[in-house]
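STRUCTURE REQUEST FORM
Protein name: Aminomethyltransferase
Source organism: Kineococcus halophytocola
Requested output: structure tokens
Priority: standard
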Amino acid sequence: MSTSTTPETAAETTPAASPLAAAHAELGASFTDFAGWSMPLRYASDLAEHGAVRATAGLFDLSHMGEVRVTGPEAGRALDAALVGRPSTMAVGRAAYGMVVDHDGGIVDDLVTYRLGEEEFLVVANAANVEPVVVALADRARPFDAHVADETARWGLVAVQGPASVAIVAPLLDGASGVDLAALRYYRAVTAVLAGVEVLLARTGYTGEDGFEVFVPVERTREVWDALLAATREHGGVPAGLACRDTLRLEAGMPLYGHELSRDVTPFAAGLGRVVVLDKEDGAVGLEALQRLAQEPPARVLVGLRGEGRRAPRAGYAVLAAGEPVGVVTSGALSPTLGYPVAMAYVDAALAEPGTHLGVDVRGTELPAEVVPLPFYRRPR
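Status: completed
Returned output:
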């Protein structure tokens, strides 16, 4: 049997390239295959990039994320039926965190929805889940006067995150566009002209810091990246890769699909019941299951764990009580900001109270861990 790779197979397995691939190569980035994309893992040092985001700013390429536009007179109603929230009640310019669930209430993806107009929404999905999200939205929108379009290939996405974000972005905005960053509050978005390019500017992020995500027409992404990188460096910031993005979001207690979230996890077990609307009209996919699950305490719930020493729990490690398995770590690292190990884990609900002392099996050695509230890190106000 031949093991040669046909051209078709090679095309299917070659990671997609970011519109900023050349820029990253020029900066000496190390690349990784992430959700079918070749993306910068780091440029120099994970720790330096992490520290820059906490102290000043980091500039991220997020062009692997998916953008799905939903339009039409009943676009809001279609999204009410498709998502766990009620996007139809959002004001124009607002954004909301939410999820797509299956008929059993399992999480298909977590995502952010922006309302761009009375009949226009932008849904931003995780890179690994763009296809199932598009399929789910299109199927669930079918009874409504709404249109679903996968626009991932049309957009680049970059993010400035850190305390200096406002100082970095403000000088690059065209004053004639009338965008007031002081008035652009968290989870808001506005059309703006940045570095001479019309963009969607959102005050959202995944690091626990203040910052902006900038949706750019794909053919002009390099212009915006170069302008933001120059401004970021002027303020002592650096380009930042996916490695530090992961430790940043872990410190901020933000879940990652494939780790804390999956089709085997419900919003309630993940501590995300607050984004679920249970009194919607019949027909919302997964609503009956979610209504039932809301009345049934989950057997295991997501918690934060604080460790000791320098050895960090990692995803898949067993959580122990009296030497017996009572849960599993979903994400873990030695926190660069806090200086001690932190982890998120699903544990038996009876052991989820902060202050509970547990152990983690770290390569055959049980190390102590204490249940603590999430997030581990909150930015200074």
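Reviewer notes: Confidence is low (pLDDT under 50) at residues 1-11. The longest strand covers residues 107-117.
Form closed.
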